[in-house]
Amino acid sequence: MIAINTKDKKIKIGLEIHLQLSTGKLFCKCPDMNNSGIKGKFSRKLFPTENESGDVDVAALQEERKNVIYEYEVSDNSCLVEADEEPPHEINADALDTALQIAFSFNSEVLNAVSVMRKVVVDGSNTSGFQRTAVVSTGGYVTVNEKKVGLTTICIEEDSARRVESGNDHTVFSLDRLGIPLVEISTAPDIETFQEAVDVAREIGMRAMLTGNIRRDSDAIRQDVNFSMGYGRVEIKGISKLSLISEALIAEENRQKFLSEAIGIFLERGGFDGTVLIDYTEKIAKSESKIIQKGIAAGNRIFAGKLENLGGILKSGNYRIGKELADALKLFSIGGFIHSDELPGYGITQDEVNEIKKFLKSRENDAIILISIPESKKDIAQDAINKRVEKLLSLDFSETRAANEDGTSRFLRPISGSGRMYPETDIPTIKIKNSRMVELNSAAPKSFDQALSSFTDEWEISRQEAEIILATGRKKEFIELAKLWGKPREMSRMILQSIPEIERKYRKKLEYGDLKTLVEKIATKNYGRISLEMAIDQCISGKSIEEVVISDDIRPLDRNELKIIVERIRKSGDIRKENIIAKVKNETNRPVDPKIVMEIYQNS
Amino acid sequence: MDFARGTKLTIKYNGNVMEVTYISRDEDYLTVKLQNGYNITIPENKIDVLKSSEPQTVKKKRITLKHGNGTPISLITTGGTIVSAIDYETGAVHPSTDIRRIIDRYPYMEEKYTIAVREFDNILSENMQPEMWIKLAGVVKEELGKSHGVVVSHGTDTMSYTASALAFMFESLTGPVIMVGSQRSSDRPSSDSFGNMEGAMAFSSTNVGEICISMHSGTSDNSISLHRGTRTRKMHSTRRDAFRTVSGKPIAEFKNKNVDFLSEYKEKSDKISLSDKIEEAVSMVYFHPGLSGQDLEKLSEGKRAIIIMGTGLGHISQSLFPSVRKIMSMGTKVVMTTQCMAGRVNLNVYSTGRELKKIGVVSAGNMLPEVALTKAMYLLGNYPDEDFESMMNMNMRGEIMEREFLGDCY
After folding, report:
1. What pTM does this model have?
2. Is residue B240 less than 8 Å (CB to CB) from chain A?
């Protein structure tokens, strides 16, 4: 897709970066990892409620109209808290510390007291009907390409339940992700180019990684983008890859540009009084169109409607108002409609189109639509179309959209207002002690480079290796393993090279917990690097840790054993300083210490 | 700095000028609402207030209940989580009388029922007292005279006490009396209030003539159970399905807008009969290793009866026997129940039990201890002393189950 230069409209972009923490869940003692399948299921309904000012959120009301029953799959990393059967426990101190540390690292003003709020979300993704969220700091900045981009707030919040399945009248979620701590970093709308948005997102992600408490799952970091070019703020939610940020922005800019043009044409023609859907089933029952016949067979009615002045801009060239209407219908599980820009087509003949036009008294610039739905959905469909057109006509495109995998996005709901927030009364305000603030502030990395230098110095590993460890969020794991092993350089090489190689060989990953146990056990036996690598290889190939650790295969040959081998080789002929090590290794599968072999060779 | 809640403030905090709404203060901290809806709590000395303007009064949407041709139901509100709202000053949940927001969730209910709301009180159920059962019974009687059935919204903590007390006081009823509560307050989108109330309304339009409790059957929102007031206990502090019929099946289930009866029940009668006296001088003692005779005697002072929650089949330490004798010699009735979650007291199996029986302790069979308490209060208030033991052993309101079955909840 080509980016369009809209000189008259100033582009403003803001980001919300969400990072999952690996500290265990935010308001209970459940781990953030899920290990097994589904332990049970239950179903719930949700109702929007008023906030403290008596307001009900518009986005919440829209969800209610869908009247969906939500099903939940119980995972083994969930308890009564996730099932909304028990109030939240106290906030996870590690998670809060991590959020505070991130806040300090962006020079954000950390609040002395954290007030947890409930953000009403009734799309089923939270069993409670709200997401617990709290501001931990305000302000701050991140510097990218020598430009300061301001931050507005840093929040700590619960992640939502993972959507497993979306059906017509039911939606299934898993509880495995619900309650995992998320740190949300929001920037001011200071970003001016799409590349800058990507750079800012990357910098924020890398810096946060330095805490070592960011999860490494594929969806552990998610971006929301706020975009405006003069037609209101559009929030695009859930962009999981950095590379998709600029694609999503380009697509959104194009959408708004062409939409505003199409609306311009629409307004010039005189706009719209609203459509009325009329039952047209009997009149079109003899059509050979498969869509029509299938609909009638399924018990649907076929409704016809006239969209005044929308002819030719529903779908032609770059104009796609039809898709906007289809997205609005999809929210109510209505699969779509056929409109005159696509007709004749779908098995509907020109004669049939003319008939409908005549029946609806359609004029030249008008569009007509056909829609196959149950009688009960007629009012909902009509209302959805009219509301959507009204909204577009206002040239205020502000709304929340969901990112698609291909970089485009779809309409999700109106922008939520402050009406969706009210205090979480089960959690008293959390006061943070000054001593804790000082401690966290001094531990907070102020820039990636600075953190890299001090990390490299402390562990005496190469800068390149240190950079990979930090940028991939493996700092905590590295420190733990390096301390157990005693030789940081060997450990970093193993983590970055030999272990991934073995994992590639077997196309299998070694669980961190297993790796840690192996490192600890091999280190206590005073075996060397080769023994550890062998043990890891055997473990990944499927042997149990216990079996591997006591196995003779990984025990290095001792001096006496080596002496016997060296003697044997000597008797069999050609032996030199240059080939002795290779020859010894040929004689055995067990680890060999070349230093000892050389000593034996030289002393004999 | 003192402002009325809702005051719009322009403040300078950390160099930034912000438009906020004042919410509350706690010592040196102010809580304000940001424009994006978040509340933040900040030390007073870090803020400069540049401007303040008085709050606009918020007009709450109020919908009066429609008076159509539906089944007439009286809704008596007593408080509790089901009608509670958030107190934004203290951050705590407090009782409210606004029942409409629950009923509004099911528009069809306004067509199906003509609901008259009567505010009885507005308290948390732990503050419910026996004298209030009497007042409540009077209101229930009055309302049953006007309606087909009565729904009583009640806090869950002592709901089964109130239910069993009312059950004893009413020998016969002209319609169902359904008590309903909730475990999640109705200010939450996920509240069980809505479903429990929908079930209660449906149960209250049946021909049941008992005092019952309407609460979630399971954790899902698809089924509401109707429990007999004299066999129900709150088994969990937080779960939606906390209420269970102990050692039996619920009377009915409400599913897909239908009431299905699962077990036998007493049908409503032509006339209402209320005996509204309650003897408050009855108390309950939970036996435990180390309980001294002195403690037992102190707890029994001035009481006309004590309900002991003994171990297993209904035992207490032999060292307490002299005290039990002493208490009984002063005319106090002693009733034995079990602290096991379910099952029957049987004073014949062990020598300890036989000894207690010989002393004259009354066995409560498989009556729940809290039900034995309300029953003793009722009997001592309305019947002569000499009938106490025989009536205690008589099944009056379904409180004693002569037969228990495998597979039933305990």
Report:
1. 0.82
2. yes
